[in-house]
Each structure stands twice: as C-alpha cells, then as structure tokens.
Design goal:
Layout lengths: L1 H12 L6 H17 L9 H16 L4 H24 L3 H18 L2 H17 L3 H18 L3 H15 L3 H14 L19 H12 L6 H14 L10 H17 L3 H8 L12 H15 L8 H11 L9
Protein name: Transcriptional regulator
Length: 329
C-alpha cells in the first residue's frame, strides 16, 4: 500500500516535467503487466491495467517534451493493447477492437513500426476468435509491412496468425504457405522495444509451435502433422517456471492435441489431452480457452467417436457453463 501511494505521488508531482525516475517507473509498470498477463488470472491484473492506462492518459493530456510524449504514446499503446486482449478474454470483441484502435493511434503518434505491427497482430487474434476470419487475414497482412521494417518477433506472429485464419477457412495451401513464412522469418528477427517488455509483447518458439498446431487442427487431412506440432507445444508449455509459459497457450495446445487425436480415431488419447484443461478454475476460463474446448466438442460431434465420446462432451459442456465473463467484476 505504501509503495502504491509513493508511486502515485511521484507520477503526479511533476506532470508537466517528468523526471527520468518517473518515466522508468511507468515503463517498469507496463513491463510487469505485459510479463504477468499470460501467466496470471485476468481478475488479478485488470484493475492495474485500467489504472495504468488512466495515468498515461492524464500524463499525455499535459504538455510533455517531444521525446517524453513519444515514449508515453508508446507505453499507452502497449497498455491499450493489453486491455484489448483483456476485453477479448472477456468475450467482448467490440470493446477489444475499440481498445486496439486506440492502441494503433498511439503507435502512430509514437511512430513505432514494432508497435504498429504488434497491434495488427492483436487485431488479427481478436478477429480470429470472433469468427471474422477474412478480417483476421487482412489484419495479419496489414501488419506485415511494419514487421518487415522492424524485424521484431511479430514478423513470426503475423504469418502464423494468418495461417490459423486460412485454416479455419479451409484453405490448406495458404495455411502451409503462411506457416513456412513464419518459420523463415526467424532468420531476420531482431528483438525490439516491444519484445523487450516480454510476456504478451513478444512471440517465442513455443507460441509459434502452438499456433501451427492450432492451424493444422482445423484440417482433418493434416491430423498427423497437427498431432506432432501439438505434442511439441504441450511439452514446451509443461514447465510453468519458463518465462514463455502461458496458461492460455498451454490450454490451446492441449485442445489442439485432443482434436488431432479425435481425427485419428483416438478417443482415449483425446480425453487424456484435454482433461487437465477441464479442471481450470473459472477465473482462468478466458474466451479463447472456452472456444478451444468447444472445438473439441464439435470435433467429437462430427466424428465416428460421437457416441463413445458423449461423456467427454458432457464434461466440456459443464466446463463452458462458467466462463470468466460470467464471474462478478
């Protein structure tokens, strides 16, 4: 409590002439939120995210030196991007895209190609889970020019995000092409100012493997390849102490493994893959996880395993009845 009060005082004492210490404090706050986001329940972070955004808005409303203003716009863009992800996790794509547009405006004012590319990646992600698949492709492609200029890990994220949307649309050729472009992009990656924030702001090998699995799981003819990618992703996310660990991506990897096994006729293996996800506490049942669980349910319904898999379907239905969005806030 005392540390929080001291920080609040420091941030407001010289709003028109921000010291180096104040700028470092704001930067550290945003970095902590970005790092924590994939690993902690949203309910523990949402208040701090909203307060940080409000503080940054207040500081920007005061006259600042150009370099400080650029940095504040950069940090506001990142924070608004995290809040876009939060709205998505709460199953509110309209609010998510509104926050993302604000974030993109901040990226423009900061004139930061890496941030522009990262926001386009978020917009692609939000659109993908909202079922707006052609929009998801367009956002990923729109971000590619900025990712090429910036050489950040978003240069990998965007094409593999595009791959997921193409796969959901049933276009296997475009899916494979995008997966290959994502892999090739590693050759020129140089972490930038966005990557250095860590967590949600960077894109590592584990997430790339998971996204490839998520794409191929849409294509029944690619069940073998999907199982291979998904198994690697599950293994990659087994260590919860790894900085790259994400409860959402681990859950997605497991549901993709379950779908691949269903397509291969392996009900027991599918149950084994998805069962740990069905034990997640309600505060971790974010929109993407609930949707991924329902993809397993739908895959069972459309397979020859629908009758023997009815008990697993019932468990999934029970799980999805209490998503994060239903909890009081």
């Amino acid at each position: 409590m005392a540390a929080r009060r001291a920080k609040a005082f420091a941030l407001t004492a010289n709003q028109g002439n921000l010291t180096r210490e104040v700028m470092e404090q704001i930067h550290d706050d945003v970095r902590q939120l970005a790092t924590d986001y994939p690993q902690r329940p949203l309910s523990e972070l949402l208040g701090d995210l909203v307060q940080t955004q409000e503080t940054l808005y207040t500081l920007l409303e005061n006259r600042q030196r150009p370099e400080q203003a650029r940095q504040l716009y950069f940090l506001t863009g990142v924070t608004s991007g995290l809040l876009a992800k939060a709205s998505h996790d709460l199953a509110d794509p309209h609010a998510a895209l509104t926050q993302a547009r604000t974030a993109y405006l901040c990226a423009e004012n900061a004139d930061h190609n890496g941030l522009r590319a990262w926001i386009r990646g978020l917009q692609s992600l939000i659109s993908y889970w909202a079922g707006r698949l052609h929009e998801s492709v367009k956002y990923a492609q729109a971000g590619a020019q900025f990712a090429t200029l910036g050489h950040s890990t978003t240069a990998v994220w965007l094409p593999v995000s595009e791959a997921r949307a193409w796969a959901a649309l049933g276009n296997a050729d475009q899916t494979h092409s995008a997966i290959r472009r994502a892999e090739d992009a590693w050759e020129t990656v140089r972490p930038d100012e966005v990557d250095e924030l860590g967590g949600m702001c960077t894109f590592g090998r584990s997430r790339q493997i998971y996204y490839a699995a998520d794409a191929l799981a849409w294509l029944p003819s690619e069940a073998g390849a999907a199982q291979g990618y998904a198994a690697r992703a599950v293994e990659a996310y087994a260590d919860t102490s790894d900085p790259e660990w994400s409860f959402g991506d681990e859950a997605g990897s497991r549901t993709d493994l379950a779908i691949a096994r269903i397509n291969l006729g392996e009900l027991e293996g599918a149950d084994e893959a998805v069962s740990p996800i069905l034990e997640l506490a309600p505060e971790n049942r974010i929109n993407g996880i609930v949707n991924s669980a329902m993809r397993v349910h739908n895959a069972l319904s459309q397979s020859s395993l629908s009758v023997p898999g009815s008990e697993l379907q019932e468990r999934i239905e029970m799980f999805t009845r209490t998503p994060l969005k239903s909890l009081p806030r």
